[in-house]
């Protein structure tokens, strides 16, 4: 298996009850544990990013397990999500007309709209989204592409931006719309517990075209 074709997935190891990183075989719907070539187990995607894929292999002491028998975990945890709002113009127009927009009231913003979602909002795909009825009566959802940054940079040129992308995931950006409107910013309305489900797979870029 070529490392740069790996679909990484985080799951709970039933033997240790700890997070473990594995390779998801989409053809057979199985997960095979990954380890460093030194034999050390991998418990976090951050370890994979920091070490580099050339140091990672299938764990020869573990057999593939059916994915349906394992507790799947979110690929990334512990860090806030940085997000860009109103970058899909049709959605920006729809949101502007919804009554929940408290920003500059233009369909296309003049400058990028940047917001964060708290790390405490992250859950795995398939976990229950809690409605928080005492907090919102206008729960909304949006499917988003999550970009996992693997290399720091400063004043990165546009043509070099993808050199800093490690991989991707899919995020359900859940929002309490009236909290977003009433607080005049996105943070509180976007950061409720369970408001950031993530798909388990973190594929590496294969073809940038």
Automatic annotation (TrEMBL):
Highest taxon above the source species: Eukaryota
InterPro entries: Fumarylacetoacetase-like_C, Fumarylacetoacetase_C_sf
Coiled coil: none
One function term, GO molecular function aspect: metal ion binding
Swiss-Prot/TrEMBL keywords: Hydrolase, Metal-binding
Residue ranges constituting the Fumarylacetoacetase-like C-terminal domain according to the UniProt record: 81-198
Family: Belongs to the FAH family.
Protein name as annotated: Putative fumarylacetoacetate hydrolase
Phylogenetic placement of the source organism: Eukaryota, Fungi, Dikarya, Ascomycota, Pezizomycotina
